[in-house]
Amino acid sequence: GAVVSQHPSRVICKSGTSVKIECRSLDFQATTMFWYRQFPKQSLMLMATSNEGSKATYEQGVEKDKFLINHASLTLSTLTVTSAHPEDSSFYICSAVRVTPYEQYFGPGTRLTVT
Amino acid sequence: KQEVTQIPAALSVPEGENLVLNCSFTDSAIYNLQWFRQDPGKGLTSLLLIQSSQREQTSGRLNASLDKSSGRSTLYIAASQPGDSATYLCAGLSGGYQKVTFGIGTKLQVIP
Hints:
The complex is a heterodimer of chains A (115) and B (112).
Chain A: E1 4-7, E2 10-13, E3 19-25, E4 32-38, E5 44-51, E6 57-58, E7 67-73, E8 76-81, E9 90-98, E10 103-106, E11 110-114
Parallel strand pairs in A: 2-11
Antiparallel strand pairs in A: 1-3, 3-8, 4-5, 4-9, 5-6, 7-8, 9-10, 9-11
Chain B: E1 4-7, E2 10-14, E3 19-25, E4 32-38, E5 44-51, E6 56-59, E7 62-67, E8 72-77, E9 86-94, E10 99-102, E11 106-111
Parallel strand pairs in B: 2-11
Antiparallel strand pairs in B: 1-3, 3-8, 4-5, 4-9, 6-7, 7-8, 9-10, 9-11
């Protein structure tokens, strides 16, 4: 199957700093990528839809100024958590959409810990 | 709005037993349904994907079924092994082929 990578896999940062997470589709082009967040013992929740060349679409309750998404190429989307706080500590997973046949491929996830 | 429910939340079985994990969804206009495995602290591993036109998919000891009319999917694991211990998530794709809604998962423990 298609491969999606995320970098870094784990990151620890201090409160108030910004962290960038990369999501790459390695063997196909993805005009659409998604970002999910998973808190402990909860399900994965969609945060935003990232579209190449246009602004991301955020789900209700997700602060667009805090979670900056850039989809600058057909194989790369980035999520930047700005001014991170301990409550932003979570597991972030991206997915990339392959259109034909339609399927979302998920990255391995990034564990963010804000101290 | 699609809602996905998984029952049971946790399951503990002895090695070798056959088991069934259940998933229900509220929006029958589902494009596909996918089962994933998630090990502690790890990402998702896709197990089986069932298109809306299909009724089941099989891979090794795993068999997943989809019944759109009743809003249900099941994951059958035959001859369970300790290595099957993980959290199993089902996810439905709907809403114009874009929205994936996840269940909270079933945490499976297979006891040697």
